[in-house]
Amino acid sequence: MKTSQLLYHVIISLLMLSLNLALAASQWEFDRSIILPVPNSLFLARDSRGNIYATSFNAREVAAPVPAVQIKNPDETKPKIKIIDEFVAPAQRGYAGVAVDSADNIYLSVDMGDRYPSYIKKYLPTLQPDRTFGNQGVLASDKVRILGLTAHRHYILAAVSWGRFCVIDSRGNFLGITPSAPFTAYIRDLAYVPETGNVYGTDRDGLFVFSGGSLAKLEDYSLHEVVKPKNIPRAGNAIYYSSLTNELFYTDQTAGGLAIYPLGKGEPGLIPTAFDGKGALQPADAVMSTDGRYLYVSDLKAPQVARYRRVGQMDVRELATPVTPSVPPTAAPKTKGASVPWLSSLDEAMKTAREENKPILAYLFSPLVPRCGEVESTVFSDEFRTRLGNKVVWLKLDVASDPRILTQFGIYKVPAVLLLSAKGEEQRKFIGQFTQEQIESAISGIK
């Protein structure tokens, strides 16, 4: 190894040591590599079943095919890998983004440069093209360049026009676009934070945020700088938001790895580039396993996705999903003395709500979070539930038994309450702190 390379890795190691001592962001150590039948990996996304979708990039000086793959059961020793899409990319081009919506539909974006149309392709959970999306499964545009993608429920957010993003639905209908940015920002990828409605983007190893708006009012969003860019515009910048840890993971090649930016408590951290081949040689994107044990990191310089294992235990007092499994969702929790029992199946609650034309009160909890016990004895007291009685369908969901519940509803912390209409449409959301009066008032406002 060259002296300069050795010095570089020593500096990175010292940096990581200081971060570990400070107990800054969540900590990770390299576990193993998932070898792919592609030259590299770039953007990542995960479905509710835990499967990962990875795209690739043509780093050659001539045109070459670039595939997108499904990594099925990535937590297992021998995950299954299947190519789901492929196209011939010009030199230094590849996929621009990947996202998975709440129904496990997969979206791939391609940006071929200023002279060519950009497009989004949609695949069903069966990995078959959705021919009802756009024009025979492809939504193309020669007006704007379509870059990174992220999804929230059935909405797809696409970074476009360098500093803006647009929203489409799962059918390919255009729903709007944010205002022009007051400064130049080459936003290449996006991450949506459901709790705040903020949309984060990465540009030149920097971090930006669209704030002040909502997906229903895109015109209210404005773009702000969070971490100043440090590099020139180039491919390979990606960003991921973990609802489990309330952290952003984004490309920072200048710092030498994958930056970790907490949106709650803690200080920023870094997952460095591979040392002696252990890890990602050039980290780009990340996605976390459903239980929070593993972090999967793409590698722009090697045919792999690197898996990192969490160091230490998650703090269940601050994070949404404890690692330890609890009561199976088939066993309906009961509340002593309550006149109406809790249901424990969302499908059963939806069926009851439709038949009886009632809203659903969904209480999301974990037996390992002390605050949840307090809520059950105070907010959901016998008197309160008896008073509301049959006005709502009572649903109680243990997120420790099924972490996908959090992803499905865009929640990163429990206790939480969701109020859904009889058709299953979200009406109100309460997270962390809420009162009987707030819930009762919200229920009376549901039509």
Topology:
Blueprint: H1 3-22, E1 28-35, E2 44-46, E3 52-55, E4 57-58, E5 64-72, E6 80-89, E7 93-100, E8 106-110, E9 118-123, E10 138-141, E11 146-152, E12 155-160, E13 164-169, E14 174-177, E15 189-192, E16 199-203, E17 206-211, E18 222-227, E19 239-242, E20 247-252, E21 257-262, E22 269-272, E23 283-288, E24 294-299, E25 304-310, H2 346-356, E26 360-365, H3 370-378, H4 382-388, E27 393-398, H5 404-409, E28 416-420, E29 426-431, H6 436-444
Parallel strand pairs: 26-27
Antiparallel strand pairs: 1-25, 2-3, 3-5, 4-7, 5-6, 7-8, 8-9, 9-10, 11-12, 12-13, 13-14, 15-16, 16-17, 17-18, 19-20, 20-21, 21-22, 23-24, 24-25, 26-28, 28-29
Summarize this, please?
By secondary structure, the protein is mainly β. The chain is built from 6 helices and 29 strands. The termini are far apart.
Mean pLDDT over the full residue set: 85
Q: Any idea how many domains?
A: 2
Q: Which segments are poorly predicted (pLDDT under 50) over 5 or more consecutive residues?
A: 1-24, 315-338
Structural class computed from helices and strand pairing: mainly beta
Overall outline: globular
Number of strands: 29
Distance between the termini: 68 Å
| Top-tier CATH class of the largest domain | Mainly Beta
Q: Give the biggest beta sheet.
A: 5 strands, antiparallel
Oligomerization status of the protein chains: single chain
The Rg value, from CA coordinates, equals 22 Å
- Summed up, the helix count is 6
CATH topology of the largest domain: Neuraminidase
CATH level-four homologous superfamily name of the largest domain: TolB, C-terminal domain
